[in-house]
Amino acid sequence: MPEAQGWSLEPKWDGWRCQIHTATRRVWSRHGTDLSRAFSDVAAAAAALPDAVLDGELVAVLDDGSGVAFDRLQSRAGRRGPRRDADFTVHAAFFDVLAVGDTDWRRRPYAERRLELLRLLDAGPAILRPVPATEDAGQALEWVGALAGVEGLVGKRTLGPYAAGLASGWVKWRERPTTEAVVIGVTGTSPATQALVLGRSRGGRMRAVGVSLPLAPHLRPAVAPLLHASGEEMRELPGALCGLPGVDVVRFWPVRAEVVVEIEVDRPGKEPGRYGYRPRVRRVRGDLSPDLVDDEQ
Q1: Is residue 73 scored above 50 in pLDDT?
Q2: What CATH class has 178-292?
Q3: Is the pLDDT of residue 296 over 70?
Q4: Using an 8 Å Cβ cutoff, are 116 and 55 in contact?
Q5: Quick check: helix, strand or coil at residue 120?
Q6: 11-163+170-174 adopts what CATH topology?
Q7: In contact, 181 and 201? CB cutoff 8 Å
């Protein structure tokens, strides 16, 4: 985490990355998927703001005040706005401004963009707010433990321009290191032992990179309806590849590579891009496309 002067630190909220064009009431995922229908409440609220393109995070805030729930965002998939019996409200936490009216702001310094963001959101709807920011590392670390739904920090150079992609110049720090993988198979003979065979693309080809620990009970009903058999016969993987060095082979049923999950990662395997242990699945990432889970990114 950067501690030198010239950096601004922001909390990393546990949500879905989004961009919102206020004038057209459109909500987009970071990969270009139109989310306006699923999050019509956020899109409608954005109409109250001046004409701008804002970068931020969709966050599901529980109505009982107990915090945020990432999995509630997935429940909006395929829907038109909130359900009447929903126990959460979706907020948009914004951290950058890309354009104001017809003017592109991406080349302007972050400090200038930050001031403009605060101006745009001033007196705006309660569900559309700026993320807090500080140049004090001590205060930023307090956010991780004190603010519900904060999973880490993002550091940005105060004089830096906005740059999309992995080479954006932002520095991210997470309390628990994570990455994403595509589900390409299922193994296990009972619900208690059921685990996911994980894959990542390399050179345009999907390859197995490991096998997860057995799914936690609360994840099983969330994952199972999303998986569909590929129609292939049962396949095998070397046990050593799967973090099971005492097992010759691991047999699994292939599924269509359609579901992305977030996993906790502690250390790399002996072969680059593969895990020498069994990672823990944290949750489904319904906001991510399998095509973009690539070792080369």
Answers
A1: yes
A2: mainly beta
A3: no
A4: no
A5: helix
A6: D-amino Acid Aminotransferase; Chain A, domain 1 (3.30.470)
A7: no
